[in-house]
Amino acid sequence: MLKNYIKIAWRSLFKNKFHTGINLAGLFIGFTIGIMVLLAVYGQFSYDKSHANRKKIFQAYQVFNRESGSQIGNVFGYPAAPMFKAEVPAIDKATRYLYGSNLVVYKEKEVDISTMLVDEDFLQMFSFPVAKGNAANPLTNLTDVVLTEAAAKRIFGNEDPIGKTIQSPYSGSKLKEMTVVAVLKNFPNNSSLRFDALARIENAGSYASEKNNWDNQHHAVFVMLKENATQEQAEKQLIVCNKKNLPGWYESLKREGAKPDNRGDIFATRLLSLTELHFSPRISGLGNGVNKAEIYVILLVGLLIILIACFNFVNINLANAFTRSREIGVRKCLGAAKEGLFAQLWSESFLLCFVAFVLSMLFAKVLVAVIQQQTGGGMPLAEMMLEPAFLLLAFSLLLFVSFIAGGYPSWLMSKFQVVETLKGKVTLKRKSFIRSALIVVQFVIACIMISCTFIIYQQFKHLQTADLGLNQEYLISIPFHKPENGRKNIEKLRTRLASNPGVLSVSGSHINVGVGLDGSSAKLTNSFGYKGANVTTNINFVDADFLQTFGIKPIEGNDIDVSYAADTLQHVILTESSAKQFNEKQLIGQHILVDSGAPAWNIVAVIPDFHMYSLREKKEPLAMIYTKNTPVRYCFIRTNAQNREAVMDALQREMALLEPGREFKGSFVDENVENWYKQEKMMSFLFSIAAIISIVLSCLGLLAMVLLIIQQRVKEIGVRKVLGADVPTLSFLISKDFLKLVLIAVLIATPISWLAMSKWLESFPYRVKLEWWMFVLVALTAIIIAFVTISFNTVRAATQNPVKSLRTE
Amino acid sequence: MIKITNLEKYYRTEEVETVALNKLSFEIKEGEFVAIMGPSGCGKSTLLNIVGLLDDADGGSFMFNGIEVAGFNERKRADLRKHNIGFVFQSFNLIDELTVFENVELPLIYTGVKAADRKTRVEEVLDKMQIMHRRNHYPQQLSGGQQQRVAVARAVVNKPKLILADEPTGNLDSSNGNEVMQLLTDLNEQGTTIIMVTHSEHDAKYSHRIIRMLDGQTVTENILV
Ligand SMILES: Nc1ncnc2c1ncn2[C@@H]1O[C@H](COP(=O)(O)OP(=O)(O)O)[C@@H](O)[C@H]1O
Ligand SMILES: [Mg+2]
């Protein structure tokens, strides 16, 4: 029976080559998109799966319910994690997680190795299996360092790394001698925590002086709960712990007018499960996370494209069904049961789906290989594709599509009445509700995709070209490999480039503007009491000539002068919103004691608020501090249009002298600012692909439909022509039914896109305004594309010699 | 074998209601060869479709082999049909995508005959119909007479007790028509009951009895033998 089905299926597929071709092409595109989307989503859900304790591990974060709104902090001061472990009964283990350095020195050789500083518990909590060395308890000694296999290979080549001594500067410390005690197995990229090496956090440069300071917050904290403890218990106990240890924080928040949230807290430390970590980038602050909403959007887009492909298939098969009605009647007459016929017809669809699916899988395999080559590793997608769970998922996609696409037409056909079919009475209706509805839905989807593409791109442009409050044009940013030498090196560059006419000024900053070649960013906040007021501000450490280099005009006061280096004071530039918090009429020249252990702040200038961070965030209060011994990680150089490239070349030569043997990573700030919006750029790119595919698939379906209808109406067209109808009238006659559908689709799609896009834009504090003309433009695009597709064929039909068409009957 | 009493069938389209069969009654015994004649539109095909269990009557009784089948659902009708009845149509109704062999094999597949048995039975019938040499051809590659022989072969391959033929010679020239009529006569002589709709008095002479219809009713019956 099955053999018979397949045999017939092959033959009828071959007989209708044109329709089979369109169907196959549509399904192939649909499946390829579907498989790639599934793979991408599958990859996202594979994050952090390998940790045996993943259900018990949480990242801690703080919620401040300020008057101005709720604020989430994912960084803590040094005392927090040990305190949680000691005082919160539900917490079993805890570790701090602080960026240490990017440099390992081994026998004069300098290697780019990123070290994270953690506590002893780290390897007991997370499952990073030890490949070699001390597996029981590495990191017991302060001088212990643990490397990944790849890092060990890069440092030592084929030497045995265990017991070797290496040197690293950790968070502003001088080079420290460390001993390699263990090597960890390499872990794939689908890990939220990424590092090349681990060392104890006590090695951080500031540890000794800051270890009891809650206010300076700079690292993430992970905790592991006891066997039977729940997240709820732990969070309650954390509040008790906070109230006991941080009464000052509560007080200042209350003074400030903080409002309790729906759980009744004005301040709380809460927990984010490791299983949710990858999907909560805002809370975790770990750069590689994605929002679930984004995953759902991708899934939805994939699903919609697959639906469009399915609908083409349904429509073509429905139209074709009528040419097969006689065969079905005969079979029924000879004793075929309805179910058997359904099985036969469906197996035909399945066969086609299966062929398309296999081709798509192979093509996806190639795509994955190309992507991996392009991105240099990344996620282990090729391996994931072969995992049984993924294959099962992909196979369900095949079943889903073959049921949606093949199911309805097969069901409809198997229901044909024998007597009618034998009389040849079953024919393709010119207007069928289902067929029209499917075409409308396809074009609705296509229009939505086009609108989304257009508006996301507008928003990207808006973000990219918005005024940051600083002048990012002709500004160069260079990261230092050794931030502790930053100030010295800036000084050297300043003197050496003084005679270069292209260099207008040189300054430095601890935090980069935009995303440079090193990809790093940081946020430091400080909050303190001042004359009864609470001051909370982001902090950046900068170098002299900051305002001049960044092109910012002060409201009052002056730029930081090179000569201030001689002082012991901290010279500070405040933005307007941070200055306001001090409640002082005259701030310039005031000496403000922020921290009894540190020199006072000498306010040298107040400037308008500007965007230190991307436009995805609101401008926040900011203080730029200049002292001669804080590290700076970036040098900034202002140049001009004529000398842009020449200065970059000069800088590369200079840096080669200052940091010999290190890769030069200078970049232009305007380009780095664009990189902030990579995500939006990527999104508008992805949507443009989705939009193109949807419109192409929809038009493909439309094309097949128009051809079928024309085929049915050849005689009518011939007769009308003989009676004197001209070509435009005739092509309009055929086109108008289809154009009506596209018009309806546009009318449905516009409000949906409007709503979806306003919702999306809501998450941006700075956004484009949706204008009616944007939607009119999209609608016109869709209509014109459809019109061209339709009239191409109708005109051809209308210009045909009527004698020919009349004779064929 | 077949006893029909007061059989009724209506067709309802938007406004008009056509009475296709109007309280029609007759009886056919096993082994008979009956011709049904009458003007176009008098309800012959409708009658044949009901007798062939392809369609359901709207009233009256239809006894098939002593069982009342009026009111049977589609599945029951299909079951009875595929084991007992073979069809021959005016327009042959062969499936274009299948070869001669596969077309004839089809009823055997639907009645669940094993593949090995199918082969011998199909070859046997094709031999008898003298189209064995065309077994791997497709219907369009055959002449009308050959196609109708294949259709007859398909109708008899399951050894049905009853063969229904709706104007089997309507699309054939007279020599091919006679050949097909001879085939039917042979089958009847071997014991198969045959009911045939025809417009041709010549063809009707092959039968034992002619039922003449007008406006959905039988008017006369001529016994020929
Ligand atoms: N599906 C149908 N819908 C409406 N009327 C029908 C249908 N089939 C047959 N008829 C009508 O029923 C009558 C009998 O038709 P039919 O049995 O095909 O006649 P015959 O085969 O004798 O030429 C005719 O008047 C025909 O118009
Ligand atoms: Mg008829």
Textual characterization of the structure:
Chain B: Belongs to the ABC transporter superfamily. Macrolide exporter (TC 3.A.1.122) family. Chain B: One of its GO terms (cellular component) is membrane protein complex. Chain B: This is ABC transporter ATP-binding protein. Chain B: Keywords: ATP-binding, Nucleotide-binding, Transport. Chain B: Residues 2-225 form the ABC transporter domain. The complex is a heterodimer of chains A (809) and B (225). Chain A folds into four domains: 1-51 and 290-423, no CATH class; 68-258, no CATH class; 427-466 and 676-809, no CATH class; 482-661, no CATH class. In chain A, 50% of the residues lie in helices and 16% in strands. Chain A has 26 helices and 24 strands. In chain A, the strands form four sheets. In chain A, strands 1, 2, 3, 6, 7, 8, 9, 10, 11, 12 and 13 form an eleven-stranded mixed β-sheet that branches. In chain A, a hairpin with a 5-residue loop joins strand 9 (165-169) and strand 10 (175-184). In chain A, helix 2 (17-45) packs across helix 13, helix 2 (17-45) packs antiparallel against helix 15 and helix 17 (433-465) packs across helix 25. The longest helix of chain A has 45 residues, at 678-722. Chain A is elongated, with a radius of gyration of 33 Å. The mean pLDDT of chain A is 87. The longest helix of chain B has 16 residues, at 174-189. In chain B, the strands form two sheets. In chain B, strands 6-7-8-3-9-10 form a six-stranded mixed β-sheet, sandwiched between helices. Chain B has a four-stranded antiparallel β-sheet with strand order 2-1-4-5, with helices on one face. The mean pLDDT of chain B is 90. Chain B has a single domain (2-223), classed as Rossmann fold (3-Layer(aba) Sandwich). In chain B, a hairpin with a 2-residue loop joins strand 9 and strand 10 (217-223). The two termini of chain B are 19 Å apart. Chain B is an alpha/beta fold and 225 residues long. In chain B, 34% of the residues lie in helices and 28% in strands. Chain A binds chain B through residues 1, 4, 7-8, 11-12, 15, 326-327, 329-338, 340, 418-419, 422, and chain B through 49, 52, 54-55, 74-75, 78, 81-83, 87, 89, 93-98, 102, 106-107, 109-111, 154. Magnesium ion binds next to helix 1 of chain B.
